[in-house]
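The instructor's notes for this session suggest beginning with a concrete chain rather than abstract definitions. Hand out the sequence below and ask the class to guess, before any prediction is shown, which regions might be ordered.
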Amino acid sequence: MRGRVHDVVWGTVRVVLAIVLLGAVWQLAQSAERGRADDLGFPRLEIRDAEGRDTGRLKVCGDRYRGPFCLRAEQVVVDDVLRKRNTRSGGRYLFEFGRSGGRPLALALHVAYGAEDVVEAAGGRGEATLYWWRGSVRLLEVSAGGEAWTIRTAHYPGREFTPPAAFGAAVAGLGAAALWAGLWRIVCGGASRLNWPWQTAAPGVALTMAGLGGALGALFAEPSPRTMAWTAGFVGAVSAVAMACWAHRRIRRRLPALEWMEPFVPVTEHRFPGAVWGPGPWKALSAGWLRTGPQGLAAVPGPATGGTFGVQPFPGALRLVRVRPPHRDDPLRMRFGYQRRDGSAGAQEAQFPLVAECESVGGPVPGARVLIGAGGENLPYVLGILCAAAPSTPSAPPDDGRGSSRNGSAVS
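After discussion, reveal the predicted structure:
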């Protein structure tokens, strides 16, 4: 039950994170749409000659040009100019302007090398003109010493659509991946394998790559936003196929827990890190080490061989059901194993144990579910003991993800 609560809690955290990310995507989408409208509408402010060629000048609202496709000019006074830092192509300056009515205005702009002298000269009560369009300053014209220089602001149309669209597409992929992972973990996370379940890893990577594909398409999607959908779909489909191949290879070939495990009947005593979990008297077998040998299965306090001090034989007979990797709803001792730090000779670590799922036959708790966890190099000894009582019955294969199982033998 503890593992199930763990799944619900962390699944809910992922769903909340996904909602936050998708909410940010909505805001970025609105900003990208406004930027696209500005990028497509700004060319209508250009003044062209009789042959339709751009003259390099823009329409300014007045007697000749009327809104909305013209720049609104505002005369201001430059109160102060502060150089914030140097860049490769010039410098970053902070302008403070005095406007009519006493309303201050500050702008941080990049200034090229050729305009630095004019800008710095204008810092002492120089004149400037702000050109507004759709509520934003698009251009700044600075005058000082009989010279004038026009500077573009960060809101100058041309790439207003691309940054929020690209960033929003990437965040959308991450949000969709987090939403899928959270919902899947809430609904059926307890039945998943502990390490990189393909049910979340494969769709998560595919959705993230689809988002990155949409971000790449944003570079070319200003005329038609459908380009983002096409690139996102193509990259997502290719990533899904690649992740499906990865999942098949990992599940069927690579995971040691899914290989057919041959039992090994020990002829001498063998001790190794392991864990046992079950109801009733099985809870007492939590020393962290197991012993196999002619005497049968037992829990022992440490790796030292010989002697019977602290040896706890298994309290009943067991029937092997299946071998599988640890699941998320398993107890912590099965999910993470044991790390011995007592400094004793032969101490080992069991970071990612396999689990032999067994059923109690008779004994104090008949029919109880008992789990035996051990490393992949030691679990064959356990299987050998379980199969020794009935050698005609084949050992249980590992869990293949389809719920298959075979009965093994009983051991006391």
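Then share the key points. Residues 339-350, 390-398, 400-412 have pLDDT under 50 and may be disordered. The longest helix spans residues 2-41.
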